[in-house]
Amino acid sequence: MKIAVIGAGGVGGFFGAKLAASGCDVTFVARGNHLRAMREHGLRLREGRGAAEDLHLREVRAVENIDQVEQADLIMIAVKLWDTEALAPTLKRLVDRGAAVVSFQNGVHKDEILRRHLPAEAILGGVSYIASVIAEPGVIEYKGALQRLVFGEFSGVASERVKAFHAACARAGFQADISEDITRTIWEKFVFLVGLSGTTSSIRQPIGPIRKNPQTRAFLHDVMREVVAVGRAKGVALAEDFADDRLAFADTLQPDMTSSMHHDLQRGNRLEVPWLSGGVATYGRELGVPTPCNRAIADVLALYAEGTRG
């Protein structure tokens, strides 16, 4: 497959490198020091700080702009959410030539934005599960064995393009699943993502202390229950008690597990909070669903949302 990976960070860099190593024709769209390092030294994957690299792609096709990609069967989007609006129109050239588009970004707003600029039939739904970051330019560092993509047609049909991508992922050696209800799958991840990102960022602690303290544990539960209520009000087939399931899942995680938004907060980077807890609060206002916990998180983090570096 010819695959264009837009955003070579923790998600795009990891899965793109695995796909390239297995024989897919992968072009990374990256920027800055990370792009320069990939061009000069390749792309490296390693499990944890100080660990030996377990994959080194010495030859990497990396460009600065999607306009430099001539053809693609599939475009994987893994940039931050705030880039989506500007990015989407630039994909039409490749879509008109037959490319499918799948976003592995956080949240539920991503596909709404893509549909405003691209034909709905070109868009697949997708979610990623991995704890990974750019440790330094040209190096992706990941934690744990959870390395999974889930994707599918919004119609629920297992199309040939979905099957082809699934086969490519299998050859690459990471877990991949085809979802028959990708909208629900995206929202199921969203429930926990909002809970984890919102609490770790606003409380400034990893999941271990949050789930151990009765008051912060209840707060995490309430945050996720609000997301479930909003999703159900939008017609998503979420179980009414799905937040209970996600709280039990939180108990299985390593106590030092945190969120990418918490990492961004610590580094003074821009935050995705307007599309996570802030997005839940906005949906809540539109649908008449109370979301006091998510609104509180969005308010607490408002001064940091644009980043604090410099």
Automatic annotation (TrEMBL):
Pathway: Cofactor biosynthesis; (R)-pantothenate biosynthesis; (R)-pantoate from 3-methyl-2-oxobutanoate: step 2/2. Residues 181-303 form the Ketopantoate reductase C-terminal domain. InterPro entries: 6-PGluconate_DH-like_C_sf, 6PGD_dom2, ApbA, KPA_reductase, KPR-Related, KPR_N, NAD(P)-bd_dom_sf. It catalyses: (R)-pantoate + NADP(+) = 2-dehydropantoate + NADPH + H(+). Its EC number is 1.1.1.169. Keywords: NADP, Oxidoreductase, Pantothenate biosynthesis. Residues 3-155 form the Ketopantoate reductase N-terminal domain. Signal peptide: none annotated. The keyword Nucleus does not apply. GO terms for molecular function: 2-dehydropantoate 2-reductase activity. Belongs to the ketopantoate reductase family. Catalyzes the NADPH-dependent reduction of ketopantoate into pantoic acid. This is 2-dehydropantoate 2-reductase. It comes from Cupriavidus pampae. The lineage of its organism: Bacteria, Pseudomonadati, Pseudomonadota, Betaproteobacteria, Burkholderiales.
